[in-house]
Structure formats: structure tokens, C-alpha cells
Write a structure and sequence with these properties.
The chain is built from three helices and seven strands; from the N terminus they run βαββαββββα. By secondary structure, the chain is α+β, with helices and mostly antiparallel strands. One of its GO terms (cellular component) is mitochondrial intermembrane space.
């Protein structure tokens, strides 16, 4: 078993980062995620938004490996998330469904306001990797650990891209609204 842990500070408010987390896929940094489907979504009696999504990913596994183990090139991941607006936390829990009898990757991400920088958001991320029943377990777990680290960095970059897009969209809406107000005022003064 290998464990990957990281922390990252986004220089953006929690609300913005949570919006970006919902809109993270598709993005150019993680082209292997090819689909996201909502399986279930509900608001609990205590106001927590709970969602279950299924992600379709394209594994960049060489053809000979897919033939050797009978793997379809599309893999699936289950993700359950909880957004608690009252205490400003968003938690995501994911687990691979494909090849879970051999490889299990349990990942947890938590977004919350930074404890000392209120205009920033803290991301705490952890992935637990277990490989069983195959030769070279330690080597494969180390390889998966490096992949998790690389994917985490790409995921943070993707979040910044989405945050930039959200801010750009908000700016365009503000400009369009101001133009509309200006047009109404100009017509009313004629």
C-alpha cells in the first residue's frame, strides 16, 4: 500500500473554487477524462448537497497490456461528493471501478477556506493505492504513486484554467448588463 498526500492553496475564494471543481472536466490538462455522468444528486435534510457521479476515463495503457489482461481502454471511477455550504467544505471521495479486484485507488479531496487567509481556499488531497494479486506489487504501487502526483498537479492546473474561465464569463456578463443599463438610460433620456 502507498499513500499520496498533498496540500495546495488556491488564491481564490472557496465559492469560486467549488464552482471550478464542478466544472473541472473536460479540460486540456486531463484529456483522459472523457465523460462525467450524474448518477444521483440530492440535498440532505441538513442542507448538504450530495452527488454521485460516474467518470469515464481513457487509460493510456499500451495495446499489449490491454490484450494481456483483457482490459477495455475505457475505465470507470465512482465519485461521491458532499458540499456543505454552512461550514464551507466540499469533500470528494472517488474509487476506481475498473480492475478494482487488482488495483484500488481511494482518493479524498477536501476544499475549505484557508484558516489564516480568508480569501484563499485550502485543498487537502489523499490517495491510498493498493495492488494485490499481481507480481511486482511494490514497483507498480510506486508507479501509480508517481502517476497520482502528476495527475494531482495537472488537476490543480486545470482548476486554475476553469477559475480563469469563470472569472472571464462573470466579467462578460457584467459588461453586457452594464451596456443594457446604459442603453435603457440613454433611451429614457431621449
Amino acid at each position: 500500500m502507498k499513500i499520496y498526500k498533498s496540500e495546495h492553496v488556491f488564491e481564490h475564494p472557496w465559492e469560486t473554487v467549488v464552482q471550478a471543481a464542478w466544472r473541472k472536466y473536460p479540460n486540456p490538462m486531463n484529456p483522459n477524462v472523457v465523460g462525467v455522468d450524474v448518477v444521483d444528486r440530492q440535498v440532505t435534510t441538513d442542507g448538504v448537497l450530495r452527488s454521485h457521479r460516474l467518470m469515464s476515463t481513457f487509460w493510456g495503457v499500451p495495446d499489449f497490456v490491454t490484450r494481456l489482461i483483457g482490459l477495455n481502454r475505457t475505465a470507470y471511477v465512482s465519485e461521491v461528493s458532499e458540499v456543505n455550504h454552512s461550514n464551507k467544505t466540499m469533500q470528494l471521495f472517488s474509487r476506481n471501478l475498473t480492475l478494482s479486484n487488482l488495483v484500488t485507488i481511494d482518493e479524498k479531496l477536501e476544499y475549505k477556506p484557508h484558516p489564516t487567509r480568508p480569501s484563499c481556499t485550502l485543498l487537502e488531497q489523499e490517495a491510498v493505492i493498493k495492488i494485490e494479486g499481481v507480481p511486482l506489487t511494490t514497483y507498480l504501487e510506486d508507479l501509480m504513486l508517481k502517476t497520482c502526483s502528476s495527475n494531482a498537479a495537472k488537476g490543480r492546473q486545470a482548476m486554475e484554467i476553469v477559475i480563469h474561465k469563470i472569472k472571464s464569463e462573470a466579467g462578460e456578463l457584467t459588461r453586457a448588463a452594464q451596456e443594457s443599463v446604459d442603453n435603457i438610460i440613454n433611451k429614457a433620456s431621449l
